[in-house]
Structures
1.
Amino acid sequence: MSKKPELKDLPGVGPKLEEKLKEAGIKTVLSMSRAKANKLAEKVDGLSENSAAKIIEAAQAMLPDAAPKKKAVKEKKPTKKAEPKSEKKVTPKKEKPKEAKEEKPKKKKAAPKKKPKYEAPLRVQNTDQRILKIAREKKKRKPSFDHELAHRWTRVRSSWRRPKGIDSATRQNRKGRVAMVSTGYRTPKAVRDLHPSLYIEVRVHKPSDLEELDPEVHAIRIASTVGFRKRQEIITAADAKLLRVLNPGRGEEVEEEDLFTDLELEVD
């Protein structure tokens, strides 16, 4: 039996080139015959593309059966066009006369109900919402004005008193002291006398003060100096005009005789 050819049997392949080829992955003559010259030249250092092509040709000559065969291109046969089939005569079907259907009256879709538009009350329309927002923001930053010595002495009330001392640190607006009352803390004049419910507060002393007031805009506050009898007269006059009273106070006192008569009726 003849020996299998080795790489060193190829012309131009020495022991150094044989080692380089084995490092590149080509260990037999069969793998050399199936290699490509350009890729082999890239993998092996010092081997040009021409010399690689010569070595591959020599390997293919040593193994003629192992050379890659070119695939034979099959000739496509011309396909026959399908002949048109003979058309069958289709007899039209006789249509039956349709009975006239009674047309039902179409129901009209009900229009969607519109929500009633919300109308703001007159007191809200009369106030400028932008100025009202500014006033609310100023009230949030407004400090509580206390007496400068209320935190030190129990005998001193917390109600504000203007400091008058020459060396008063509060009067000099020094750091760490209570806030001084000043005009900068005031709210805008347009919304200054408004109640939180946006009614204009009006201080009342007698029933005749209610004559020119509007129940949609004004709300009354009874003065503290008004007596009980006149207070009841003002409340009845306000109810007649549908005016809102902000401080109605307690109701009429029940007399002692009426109380006892009610108790006697319950016992019976």
Note: Confidence is low (pLDDT under 50) at residues 69-73.
2.
Amino acid sequence: MPSIRPTGVNFHKVSHVLELSFEDGSNFKLPTEYLRVYSPSAEVQGHGPGQEVLQIGKQDVNISRIEPVGHYALCLVFDDNHDTGIYSWEYLHELCVDYDLKWQAYLDRLAVAGYERKTD
């Protein structure tokens, strides 16, 4: 499978959305909360299956900096001081394509744990 690279990366700070475009013409908008709770860092993912750490209270998190990592990834630095996730192009594409499924899975995990997201 060829490497998946975005043709455009645009961060909308006010709306807390990272917009990604790909060579096939697809365009996705990912909320910063979603990116934060699915950070690929060991702090969030753990060190193996079943070790994931449920992230709560991230509705208002924003990205303070986006740093390129070579030609293969981005490091998203969040304003809650989380800065250890390296988001490869492939992982970002997975987050885009599987957004609905992953977002619902996150909401389900919150509900099972007894947490409720605050809404505006």
Note: The chain has one domain: 6-112.
3.
Amino acid sequence: MKRKNLKESFSCALVGFVLVLNSERNMKIHLAAAFLATALGFILGISRVEWGLLCITIFMVLTAETANTALEKAVDLVTAEYHPLARSAKNAAAGAVLLSAINAIIMAFIIFGRYLF
């Protein structure tokens, strides 16, 4: 495989993100939640530390969803037939997304709770 320059690498990464955004309903949901959380952060005037925690949380969920999609595509490339190991791999990756989403909900309560309650 030919070695890519930095511009080509960033271009491939952007194409990959757009692919996930266009093909995965859940990525759209996560991105909408991220925009809502960001807007709420501006409205409530959260602190710099809270912004840092919010950014880490948002990007953790988006990264998990992207990795989940990559794993699903790779498994689909290897086999189109049902296989229990393929199912286990896909379920484990989806579980990672679920864990990151649960963390995001917990972080939302921690960050926004004192402003809203």
Note: The chain has a mean pLDDT of 95.
4.
Amino acid sequence: MAKKKSLPKKSITNRRAKFDYELGDSFVAGIALNGRETKALRMGHGQLQGAYITVKDEELWLVNATISGFSGVPISESEQTRTRKLLAKRREINQLIEAKKQGNTIVPLELLTGGRYVKIRLAVGRGKKRYDKRQTLKKRDADRQIGSVHKHLS
């Protein structure tokens, strides 16, 4: 049997998540997708910016994640940002629902397209205030300056 050609790993990440939220425990869950969406994600045509996870009827749903089509794989406008069901174990779902009741947010971090199935890494997070974000920026700048000083001394 011929070995299938493996597609290059395209990691689709939510870069704003670490900046906007203080993240806690992370989980990996599956996503209910159709074939065109799976192929588009494997080619790197997805976006998690502005996406969030909500709870409805004791189930997790991914809202506002964009999966755009490309030549040969058409995806209509209404299908690109449709709400998608997340697949996880009941125990994990209950933990996430409990965290949501405590006032935390469930944040999608990245789409994992390396294995046989497309999965999503999500984490429980608490939204940062504006001054927390400013402190994050100051710390990042200070670390950058320290790193550049070390480069010049070496």
Note: The chain has one domain: 12-127.
